[in-house]
């Protein structure tokens, strides 16, 4: 029997979940969580590349575009060492958290287009407010679990997991402007995929809290299907929890997605990224997807086109697009053509 079918059958033995056929898209044109210009243009670039139209082509999918978050342009300075633009990051994420919660309460999958990865604070916080025991799969070349004490850059896009995790609360000073966000997400519900650039203190945190972390060398050894199935089993053996995927485009190899601010060679192929999202979609439990760190200002026209197309492929795979192609509407049982290999038919098509 097909391995994926066996997996899906086992998944259905837990709490009954069905893939939602409604999606809410929210853009976050925000780039102050890092230092490079351009990532704020990604929501507009994705829409111009056909994001909404391509999602609507997925059979049965109801797509609602909620527009963009109004991102702050300036804010009063605050005294927090080694956290650049914290008030701006905080205000953007406060608004985003509210919007993600609204989309989920509307019984839609929340699809957030960044922006840099600091917006993961808002998306995950908003999801936690609706589904307290959600699991988070952080697909990224980087672990993003630094604090202001361990970060080498002061860029908040390298800190969102540490800001979200309640186990990390004692490692932070008081953060002015962040009173709205009480860390409630647990590291026991976290896993990483595609790591290959992890700082020393980040590795200590991953090991301390026993976070399932599949670096690229692990994916090379076990393959993407076994890797993600292992993660889903470890985080949710009863198969009862909703899933949030936060997908940084730099999880893909730089050849696949060159227009990003912190590319790292040796990442996922696009096919591996698509397969990862297909498997998660097949659980029926996917409730939120972030797609972040596409930077249309990086690279040439070909680079931008390739990166935007890769992002579209990732989103469509997570929302039910079939690479086999759709069946004609109303036709479910068609005879399947096969190739005989016995001597009598001599390989003729039937």
Summarize, please.
The chain has 350 residues and is an alpha/beta fold. It has helices at residues 3-11, 42-48, 51-56, 86-105, 120-130, 160-164, 200-208, 216-235, 270-282, 301-318, and strands at 22-28, 62-68, 109-114, 135-139, 190-195, 213-215, 243-248, 286-292.
Tally of helical segments: 10
CATH superfamily membership, which one?
A: Ureohydrolase domain
Which consecutive residue ranges, at least 5 long each, have pLDDT under 50? 1-13, 336-350
For the record, give the distance between the C-alpha atoms at the N and C termini, rounded to a whole number.
Answer: 22 Å
Global outline: globular
Biggest sheet strand order reads: 2-1-3-8-7-4-5-6
- CATH architecture annotation: 3-Layer(aba) Sandwich
The string of secondary-structure elements, in order, is HEHHEHEHEHEHEHEHEH
> How much of the sequence is in beta strands?
5-15%
Q: How many separate domains make up the residues?
A: 1
CATH-derived topology: Arginase, Chain A
Class based on secondary structure composition and strand pairing: alpha/beta
């Amino acid at each position: 029997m097909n391995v994926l079918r066996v997996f899906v059958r086992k998944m259905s033995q837990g709490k009954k979940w069905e893939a939602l056929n409604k999606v809410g898209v929210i853009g976050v044109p925000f780039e102050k969580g890092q230092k490079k210009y351009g990532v704020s243009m990604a929501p507009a670039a994705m829409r111009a590349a056909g994001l909404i139209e391509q999602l609507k082509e997925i059979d049965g999918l109801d797509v609602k575009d909620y527009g963009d978050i109004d991102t702050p342009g300036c804010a009063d300075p605050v005294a927090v060492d080694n956290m650049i633009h914290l008030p701006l990051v905080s205000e953007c994420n406060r608004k985003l958290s509210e919007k993600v919660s609204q989309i989920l309460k509307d019984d839609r999958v929340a699809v957030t287009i960044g922006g840099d990865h600091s917006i993961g604070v808002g998306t995950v916080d908003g999801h936690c407010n609706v589904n307290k025991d959600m699991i988070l799969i952080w697909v990224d070349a980087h672990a993003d679990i630094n604090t202001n004490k361990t970060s080498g850059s002061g860029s908040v896009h390298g800190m969102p997991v540490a800001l979200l995790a309640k186990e990390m609360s004692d490692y932070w000073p008081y953060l002015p402007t962040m009173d709205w966000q009480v860390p409630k997400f647990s590291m026991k519900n976290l896993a990483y995929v595609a790591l290959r650039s992890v700082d020393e203190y980040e590795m200590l945190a991953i090991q301390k809290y026993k976070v399932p972390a599949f670096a690229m060398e692990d994916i090379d050894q076990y393959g993407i299907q076994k890797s993600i199935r292992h993660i889903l089993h470890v985080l949710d053996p009863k198969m009862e929890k909703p899933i949030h995927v936060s997908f940084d485009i730099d999880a893909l190899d730089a050849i696949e997605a060159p227009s990003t601010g912190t590319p790292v060679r040796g990442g996922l192929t696009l096919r591996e990224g698509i397969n990862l999202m297909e498997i998660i979609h097949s659980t029926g439990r996917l409730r939120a997807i972030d797609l972040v760190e596409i930077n249309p200002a990086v690279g040439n026209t070909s680079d931008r086109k390739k990166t935007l197309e890769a992002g579209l492929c990732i989103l469509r795979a997570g929302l039910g697009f079939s690479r086999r192609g759709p069946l004609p509407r109303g036709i479910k049982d068609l005879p399947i053509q096969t190739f005989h290999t016995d001597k009598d038919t001599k390989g003729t098509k039937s």
